[in-house]
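Tutorial handout. Part one gives the primary structure; part two gives the three-dimensional structure as tokens.
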Amino acid sequence: MEKFDLAVIGLGPAGHFGAIQAAKEGKRVVAIEASHQVGGAAAVTGTIPSKALREATIHLAGVRQKAFYGRHYRVKGDLTMRDLTQSTDQIISQEVGVLESQLTRNGVQVVRGYGSFISPTQVVSEGPEGVRVFEAKKILIAVGSHPARAPGVDFDGHHIIDSSQILKIDRIPRRLTVVGAGVIGVEYACIFAALGARVTLVNKGESFLEFLDQEILDVLRFQMQSNRISFCCGESVEEIKVVDGEAVVRTESNKVIHGDCVLYSIGRQGSTQHLSLEAAGLEADKRGRLQVNESFQTPISNIYAAGDVIGFPALAATSREQGRRAICHAFDFPFSSQSHDLPYGIYTIPEISTFGPSERELTRDQIPYEVGRAWYGEIARGHILGDLHGLLKIVFDPNTLKLQAVHAIGDGATELIHIGQAVKALEGTIEYFIDAVFNYPTLAECYKVAAQNGYNRAAYYRPETTNKSAPTGAPQEEPDVDVVT
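Part two.
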């Protein structure tokens, strides 16, 4: 039996960062990975491939140029899936190569095989390298997740597919039905709509992505409807089948939706089915997820879990930090326990990013706030990019002017969000944005415009500033941009 300080099961973002964190602190680490490629869904089947597809779509479908040349403009007329995915394998290979290099140079021993528990301190790997047993003081479960599937539905990889199969389809469907309006479903709905498919989004809830700020969600919905995406909300799916070469969805209210393809995207399932959790004294819930505390520690004190396997938010960026923090807690490594707001990036078209509470949450908690807005339509860079409907919205305390949240939708939103995230972490106020000089023309200038807009709104909260002029250039009126009608 081989002995280690740490055994990691799964080398997606959480396992990768956890393993390297321990190795950098001098711990002996073994990592068990079932796939022939490290990186998990983030690098191999989900995040990186889907974002590569999105970028190819934006370029080849001429999404950014339509504002100048009309909605029917395309860089390439007859697009195929091969056009869109030809760079994907290369991008995946490069990313996997980087990850493997990091593991090697940090001395992490990678073992190929399926890992499972023998006891709370012992795991076994079964795979191409045979059967190997490891004993470890600490264990990190980072096995990720896989698409949930409905029983009785024939996922044939052609007419009925899940999110792991969609990148392998051989044609761009003319009519696509997306069942489930979570992040993955909405992202793919936007991508295929941009490619010209008529997309119908079916969702059991009355709305979708309800964790988002409502104003941002309204802008997204308007943009999606402008791209001919139809919404069928408040509808449960009763049956999905293939009839005469068509993918047919029937809802409980007996609506029948015909299409060339159905993407079934009702959440994901924790990949804990092969772990023999009972041998470690653990139990997963019905979605295969493990329960952890704020330090990512399971009920068995030496076993930690991080990433998709513990559920929401199940994003690659958050999983990385969860894996790192879990290992820091496990070995008492020094690290900041301050809980900064986590950013969320949603790669719809247009993209969305957000951190901090929404207006709805602040209202619920009776916390005073004010809002400043900057529409891309009033930013020079927005015109250059052809994005006139983007919005950056800052939320702040009207008394202290301290930043509370930033919500953004539009080109570059996932990059822009980190400026606000840094200011919030350093307990800054919106006066930083007013006083700072931003390169021109850039989207970052949105922060200055939004701060000036919000400063004017908040003036009446501060009697001492009632007669104080707003900073030079501060807009005195709301921008005249008609986005949602």
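Part three, for discussion. The chain has 14 helices and 22 strands. The CA atoms of residues 9 and 156 lie 30 Å apart.
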